[in-house]
């Protein structure tokens, strides 16, 4: 037997090593470390577990209180120091959770507990403690907390109603959107109430069905009407699922409910629209139909069915082949070509002109073809639309005739028509501009009105352009005369009428209708000149003629009295003759001036 087995010191040493080994294993397994601080000698001791947690090599650095505090995360360092001070001064238990920064830069969460050893007077001699790496537990807690907050945030912000209902139909929990949906002012108004009291009585069976299915472990959905706490009626769509405990037992029902009132209203509106569309489609004389790739009728309005029935001599129906051989070979192959083009993917429009076999009237039709494709883009059929444009064609012909008449009038009329912008620049001018003013249409459009108007008339024209802009659409200014330069350099008088058509989309400008009134103005000037001459003659009559006439009358009256001597009578007769000659000269002058007043044309005619 080995002698060491009888040595008690050896046994104790072996036990101590075993205990130390077990202790280290416990520290490693529990992620623990213990530490001691001697207040008297200001020394600190860390176990291997502390170095392991801090990812430090004990042989590379001396242990110190400063190293310990520096290992604490900067954001937690002041808290750790303050806690130690409170433990010493206020004698509170040492119980601290904080973050440490390891030698490798990793952050770890630790939970530390310690006991302070004091002397008889209460002075601290030593503090002995342990701490445990609780990083995984803490991070798991924070993750769970974040998940809980995230789920809570989602639930609170969820726009649909989320509620939990007990098996007997009592509301346990509901998110804000749900409370708003049922018109509850607070959660207390709704929690604890029976959900069935909010359901339209005639729809109660639908709600009860999904609730009972959930209690059986079956997920299901239903639509029903709800009446809010303030009386508002809504259509709801709800999906119910079971909620279970840890043992898998169903403890309540979770429901996601959305307000589908607008959806239901829109569905009803779509149904009405569809019915209206069917009524409209069937009431039109236009032909609407669709075919499959075998030229068989898929759908059609009544107008097309009437035509199909006439052509095939039997009532038309869905499934009939739309290529009618009895309508003639030309008709058959023409429409077969149309359908083949459309079924090949071409979108096109054809125009048909024929004598209708039904009405015996000439018809013009615009026929459109468009392929029908499925979700994969494959052509599955063709939709066709035949529109009667006979009336439109007749009106089009009438419009063409009217346009020709208008063009003839514009081109050969005495008036010039111009469309101007507000600055007087031409946008359009009628061909009669050449006959009236000598300019070609191109030359006229390159000029502004101010380039041809007489400088003395320019202010009047500018004022007129401002005035016409203030008029309502279609209103005109009273006609006015301007002097405009002919291409040959002469000045012509033109009478212009401006009309505001700026806001008319088809014209978009000021319409100027003008014509040459030079001859008229010249005659007016001549008349005014003659009037002046006539005034001069009248003045002469009233002033010059009266003087000799008054002398003659006076002399005659003097002679008639018989009081004159023979010599005086002779002298009076001589004065009478002189006055008569003077009067004759005046009359001759009046005759000459009168002849000048009469226009030469009048003279020649007379």
Automatic annotation (TrEMBL):
SUPFAM superfamilies, per database record: Homodimeric domain of signal transducing histidine kinase (SSF47384), PYP-like sensor domain (PAS domain) (SSF55785)
Residues of the signal peptide: none
Catalysed transformations (reactions): ATP + protein L-histidine = ADP + protein N-phospho-L-histidine
Ranges where the PAC domain occurs: 94-146, 220-272
GO molecular function, one term: phosphorelay sensor kinase activity
Annotated InterPro entries: HisK_dim/P_dom, HisK_dim/P_sf, PAC, PAS, PAS-assoc_C, PAS-like_dom_sf, PAS_4, PAS_fold_3
Keywords assigned by UniProt, alphabetized: Kinase, Phosphoprotein, Transferase
Enzyme Commission code: 2.7.13.3
Statement: the UniProt record of this protein carries the keyword GTP-binding: no
Domain PAS: start-end pairs: 402-472
Alphabetical list of PANTHER family matching this protein: PAC DOMAIN-CONTAINING PROTEIN (PTHR43304:SF1), PHYTOCHROME-LIKE PROTEIN CPH1 (PTHR43304)
Protein name (record): histidine kinase
Source species: Leptospira bouyouniensis
